[in-house]
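Data availability (excerpt). The following record was deposited with the supplementary files.
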Amino acid sequence: MRIRTAATAASGAIALLAFLAPAAQADMQKGDTTFTSVTFSKSTVNVGVSAAQSLTVVATAKDDSGIKGIYGPKVISPDEHAAFPTDGTCTRPTTTTMRCTWTYSFDANDSDDYADLKNSQAGTWRFTAEAAANDQDFYDLETSKTVKVKRYAKLSATNASPEPVTQGGKLTVTGALTRANWNTNVYAGYTGQSVALQFKRSGSSTYSTVKTVTTDSAGKLKTTVTANYAGTWRWKFAGTGTTSPVTATGDGVALK
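Predicted structure:
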């Protein structure tokens, strides 16, 4: 169990601190104290290179003797760095429960170097907090509640040429996949990634995958297809454990 601090449930000195958190361990409990709910405002936080993104966490704890406080609320990255709430409030809906709401900010270009996100921090973050009861029972939440924090990805607009194209003729389709580099605050080519090339016939509302293409060393995409029908071509990236999914703007191609 972590040592309890004197900080209140709403406290938090900074948004993101280069702080070595305790190694992950399973949730711990004494007595009947429990978290009846922990919810996140979004399941995935996609962060680019300039604009900060927020996450709200709402947690409700219960004990028959009443909850004294919820302490140490933070979210911890895969490389054990911790984000502390920028603000928070707590209420007592009943004599046996406490509900707290905290806001976290994720920024790759924070004015405080210690608060900058780093590439190594992309992936699954875990929420931790300790609910302490009036009768000395407690619940130490460590690993059971998680949220994704991912590097934002971009796909350039799809380009298919020539336009128009002879029916049965060849089309060259190009694009480029980039993602946020939190270490350098730029978007850089995402290499070696599988990206689906999709097609939607004119008059249809449904895209189908024609083939999968791998990005080159600069994140660029290029392939040749046969144009049997008029319609729209687009690139679609499914994302990874550290990078957001993205769909490119399509390019409509007519037949001649």
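Summary of structural features: DSSP finds no helices and 22 strands in the chain.
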